[in-house]
Structures are given as structure tokens and as C-alpha cells.
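Below is how a single chain appears once it has passed through the pipeline. First comes the sequence as given, then the structure the pipeline wrote out for it. We keep one example in the README because the format questions we get most often are answered faster by looking than by reading.
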Amino acid sequence: MNHSKRLLYSVLPLILLFTAVSCGTESNGEADLNEPPTYTFERGGQSSVSFTGQTTRIQMGDELFLAMSDFENTTEELLLQMYRNATADGGDADPWSDDDLNESGKSIKSKVAASADYFSSNATESATIKNQFEEWLSAQVDEVFPNRDVPAQPGVAGQIADGSSTRYVSGEGLEYNQLVNKSLIGALMADQMLNNYLSEAVLDTGTNREANDDGEVEEGSSYTTMEHKWDEAYGYIYGTSQNPANPNQTIGEDDRFLNKYTGQVSEDEDFSSLTTDIFNAFKKGRAAIVAGEYEIRGQQADIIREAISTVIGVRAVFYLQAGKSQLEGESPQYGSAFHSVSEGYGFVYSLQFTREPGTGQPYLSHDEVNDLLSRLLGDGENGLWDVTPETLEELSQEIADRFDFTVEEAASN
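Resulting structure:
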């Protein structure tokens, strides 16, 4: 079923309710939102939209990804400094090519697995996830870099080629740069968006509602705290857009994280409305905040949660299915398959940060995700060298069953 139809069916009762309440009047409901055609909001003639911190972290993630493949210049120390934006002892570091990033005071690590809803009372799991990224970064330098000219084989890191592409994998066949990239989509972008900045615990904390109703802006700014928190969620998908006020003109081209894969998934006719659904929900939710319509704000947050989670779920299945196809037949394409499944590994890892509307829970839990990944790598030391098309199909089906799409729909683009 087309994603736009699913969303329509899920919100139709609410539409009818608001129609019934507001019929014949403009004192209640959505008629009061004064929703702009683009994500443009102003106060006193100045823009009240700001998400510079999100732009900074997306740029940091991009440079970190590129550094993971720079065999000549990258060290383990450098990768860890990029992740932390600090030295090992917490001192200042200048790991970035852009001085603005070095001086930002922000880091990737501080926002990984750090949402209010999922991790404010779960410091142990948060620390485990944060440290997992450090282990992957270290392994890229310690395991893969020294063996970049060695043919990869089961248990031995090195290079593996299919056609014109050469991949550099661990002894288990994993491309660490790919799984880090895709895992950050969940652990950083989605978690902060869905479970932090769109959370009532963040939007309504303290006196935020009263301050927003009174139009009380943060010191030296043109936005209320609630407006700013919503904008920060927006920034994790549109933060590096060429036109942030009207970003869907170039969605898929603006970063290598959530923006990129939302654009790619939307190219599939089964999910063609996703980009519009997400943007319109962000825009309407922001207008609802300005109007003090908090119930409408919550409805839009749930639309975003469902749509962003769907992007992650679809891409997890897509890459597992791609790997399955590349392993089938008499001449398995191991290089291509390991590349696809490494991407799939990252998207599967990201599933624990999704958010099922109305539940306060991810579509798959931390433990369920770890079980899937354990089965993906098998029980021995060979990892992806031993994975079978049958296992990839089973995992794909289990993921699709948690969402409102089929394996066939997810695999078609």
C-alpha cells in the first residue's frame, strides 16, 4: 500500500474530528494555523528558525566518514578526536578541516544515544552505544588499514573487488565506514529528532508552554524555546539543505545521512509521498506551535516519527535484499554483497532508535536489534563470509513484519 494512503487512513479520524469541531467557525482547529507555504517563520521581521547545531553535526559526520577511507592521512587518534571533538583526556582538539567545526564546542559523541525519551534514565545502554562507535573507528585503523593491500578472506581483513569496485573489509567482511555512516542515521539523527526534540518531555519542559503562549523569546534570539526545539528536529534532516525553507527540491543530494536516504526511498512509487509527508508535518507542527495548538503539534510529530522510521526500516530491508541477490547463483559477488550488507547492518542497528507512534517505543528494541545482527554475522569468526541468502531473507521478513510494508515493496528500488 502506498505510504500516503497509510498516513491518510491513520489521520482521517482526526481530520473528521477537527472538521466537526471547527465547521462554521475559525476560532478553533487548523483554520487558525496561518501555515506558510515554506518553512519560513519570522518574529519582528527576523527569521525565528535556527538549527546551526544540527548543521554542524551533519558536517562533522560527513568529514568523519571521508576520513575513515583516507589510508594515508588518518590515524586512530584523529578518528576518535573527530568523534569526540576532543582529545582522549578531554582537552581541546582541532581535528576538522573547517575552523568553525573545531571551534563549535559540539561533538558527534555527545548526541549519540542521548535522547530524553530513550536514554535519560538508561545511561548504561547509552554508554554502550557511544563506545561501540569508538570500537568501530579504532578497528578501521587497527584491522583494515594495515591490510589494505592484502586479499580479504574469512578471518582476515583486507581488500575485496568486484568489477571496478574495491572494498576494504574486516575479517568478518564488514565495511566499517559504511556501517558507521548508516548507524549514525539512527543513533544520532533519528534518535535526536524523534525521541528528543519532538518529545513532549523536551518541548514542554519547565514553563515552555507558558513562555510559548506569551511569545517569550530566548535571550538574544527571535524564537521561543519550544520553537527552537522543533527547528532543531527539522535540522537533522534539512540542516545542510541548499534551500532549508523549501528543501524537497534537492532532498537526497544534501548530505549522506537522513536527507540522502529519505530522498532515495521516496523514489520508490510505494513510498513516493514520504518527502512531502515529512516536510508538511514539520511545517504544520511549527505553525501549530506559533498558534499554541499543541494537540495538532503532537499529531504532526507522530506523522514524522512514522515516516522517518519507515525510511530506516525500508533501507534496512533494501540492503539485506541487495546482498541476498548478490550472493545467489553460481558466482557470488562477495565484494558487492559485503558492501550492501554492511550498509544493511547500519540500518538494522538504527532500528532501535525508531519510534512507533502511540507506543513510546522503537519498532525493534535494542535487544531485538542485537539478536538480528548476531544472526547476520553467525556464530563463528567468519561473519558475512558464511551468511546465506536464506538468512538475509528471514531477517528482511522479520523487519518488514514490524512495519506497514512488504519485503517486495522495500526491495523494489
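The radius of gyration is 22 Å.

See the next section for the split statistics.
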